[in-house]
Write a structure and sequence with these properties.
It comes from Olleya aquimaris. This protein is of the alpha/beta class. It is 32% helix and 25% strand.
């Protein structure tokens, strides 16, 4: 994997083969950041990277100037790799070794952008827990965005707070937003 843009543009990062990960492809990552770049100034956002894996998405945010990044993953090897990589690049990435669902249930820390890349073989019910917990616990800032990466064969459009999806190859990003119309009901 490589960093697409920013201070560390072009740098390659090689994760150990034994990690239980499926990094977001460069093509999909570039498309995602083109969308986000039109909505946010990266140096003024707070990012929460769930199911962080190799830290691929977090490195991209850090390279683009984001200073508040938290990665959550339950695999010790992934957390160790992210810590080592972040230290070698002097990136401001904090890691938390935790089950993502337990973290979402207990966290009070809001973020501007929450990115979740759970295993593609999750049943829809497991995918549904992510936005459910994020919005129930008010973890997304008012103008924030929850992005869930999944297979193009998974449809999350029926979930509450769903806004839209974009597909790139076999990857799909579903975007979820705070819905002010819910508050008026």
């Amino acid at each position: 994997m490589r960093i697409i843009s920013g201070q560390f543009k072009g740098r390659r990062i090689t994760a150990p083969k034994k990690l239980p990960v499926r990094p977001t492809t460069d093509m999909a990552k570039e498309a995602l950041f083109n969308i986000l770049n039109n909505q946010y100034y990266f140096d003024s956002v707070t990012v929460l990277d769930l199911f962080a894996g190799t830290g691929n998405i977090s490195y991209e945010f850090a390279s683009r100037g984001t200073e508040h990044i938290t990665c959550v993953d339950q695999d010790y090897g992934c957390i160790k790799f992210i810590n080592q990589t972040a230290a070698s690049f002097e990136m401001p990435i904090q890691t938390i070794k935790s089950d993502v669902f337990k973290y979402l249930e207990n966290s009070k820390q809001q973020a501007t952008i929450i990115f979740a890349d759970p295993p593609y073989d999750f049943p829809v019910e497991e995918f549904a827990k992510i936005p459910e917990l994020v919005f129930e616990n008010n973890l997304l800032e008012t103008d924030g965005l929850l992005v869930v990466e999944h297979s193009k064969h998974t449809d999350l459009s029926q979930l509450k707070h769903y806004a839209y999806s974009k597909s790139y190859g076999g990857n799909t990003f579903s975007f979820f937003e705070n819905d002010t119309s819910d508050e008026e009901e």
